[in-house]
Amino acid sequence: MLKIHHLVLSRSDRIVWLAEELGVKYELVRHVRNPETFRSPDSLWKVAPMGKAPAIQDGDISLGESGAIIEYMLDTYGQGRLRPELGTPAYRAYQQWMHAAESTLMVPIILEVLCTLTQTDSPALKGFSDGEYQTVFKYLNETLEKSPYVAGSDFTGADIMVTYSLHLANGKAIPIMAGHPPLDKCPAIVSYLERIEARPAFKRAVELCK
User: Which of 33, 55, 147, 173 shows its CA 20 to 30 Å from the CA of 10?
Assistant: First the structure.
């Protein structure tokens, strides 16, 4: 049976959510961060070489990294669901946002998280982060003005990737980030998150990941 190692307050929220969307039978193994260091506990290091979540075990397969796990689960359990047809414009958009969620979109968010957690006040760093926020969120908002989901008319694994990044930014993934950044200037993103959060599988995953 598929085993999902979930670290509270981490990207592994994505994998639990995907499993719920696919209706996959799985075992959820819950790990809790060290309250002093915010690092992973020893229990996660025993199954993940870098002590990172998400991590899965599926028979003799062990895998880490959100995007890689999502692609593996769609290959293995998806049966054509949550991924556009290969070679279509929707598939290219899917690929773009699968990668952008942990690269271009995540860069200013991670900078903001680190500055908030460490109470760092650097005008140069803030200036760069603010500029990146404006660029990336503007592009994402424009994308969602044209279609309900990042890869077009259908919900896909790329939306699972992007949503966690947005929830990290607005404080729904880590409460200390509440209000960073305000999304009121991005109405298409706000509407998008409302659609996403109304999904039954998303609601189930939120409860399981607490």
Answer: 147
